[in-house]
Amino acid sequence: MDIRTSLAAQSYAQARTAAAPEPSAEGAEATVGRLIGSFAETLAEGEQTARAAMTGNADPHALVQALASSQLAVETVATVRDKVVEAYQEILRMPV
């Protein structure tokens, strides 16, 4: 079994950041921009790994890891989107 240490370290760093985000002084706009960039990067890495797997240049375990990471990113974005829409609807229901 081939375990790629860089992939393991990257996954650990992502999990650690998600579990205990560090406080920052940047604004909401910068935070959202950074998160969108991270989402796009995750999807791009998954696509690159999938292409490599189709040509036989990638480890099957790396493909499964990339697919799981992409699925988690998409589910997270969908959940955040649903919460934002729900909050917006609550604001619209407030009496003026």
TrEMBL record:
Species assigned in the record: Cypionkella sinensis
Pfam families associated with the record: FliE
InterPro entries per UniProt: FliE (IPR001624)
Keyword Transferase: no
Coiled coil: none
Keywords linked to the UniProt accession: Bacterial flagellum, Cell projection, Cilium, Flagellum
Family: Belongs to the FliE family.
NCBIfam families: PRK00790.1-5
Localization terms from the record: Bacterial flagellum basal body
Keyword hit for Transmembrane: no
Top-level lineage group: Bacteria
First-listed, main subcellular location of the protein, grouped into a coarse class: other
Lineage, broadest ranks: Bacteria, Pseudomonadati, Pseudomonadota, Alphaproteobacteria, Rhodobacterales
Protein name per Swiss-Prot or TrEMBL: Flagellar hook-basal body complex protein FliE
